[in-house]
Input
Amino acid sequence: MKIKILSFIKDKNVQTLILINGILLFFLTYITCVSLQVDGYSLSEVVFLTLLPGVYCFVLILATYPYFINKHRKSNFSNSLPLIHKFFQVLIVFVLSTLFYFVLDILIFNVDKSISYDFAISLLKIPSENNLQSHEIEEYANEPFSIQTGMITFSIGFIAVLLSLLFIKKDGGLLKDRY
Output
């Protein structure tokens, strides 16, 4: 099983998929955050930004996973190479893509902390009945944006992973050659 997983990760299609999803998720989120940050985050924008990486992750998964993973499966199936179960394939790609997104965000956070700080400070606009103390917000502001929204991103992304399984066939069948 370990050899199958390593073989899967070393596949060019899989590596491309991981890079595409990680980079696109980061840049789409970053560009949106920067464009909304110009005039300060409103309460509705704070709520929107909480869901934003998850929504981008959802769309990217459903747009890219079936193509690249079916391409990998079709290649391995036609060459009689061993395959790991498609659930593990999409889960591995999801975890590695998300980790790549987190790494990119943490790197940018070390250069520019303004997005995370402004996002956390905007949370102070939420009524005090939520019992958030200012020191809790300050601690929260010291985390990268991807970490601040990570649980929701991961949850929405996992739902997309499960949906993408519907489009990934055993033999890569969605990619029929048309002649």
In short: The chain has a mean pLDDT of 84. The chain is about 75% helix and 0% strand.
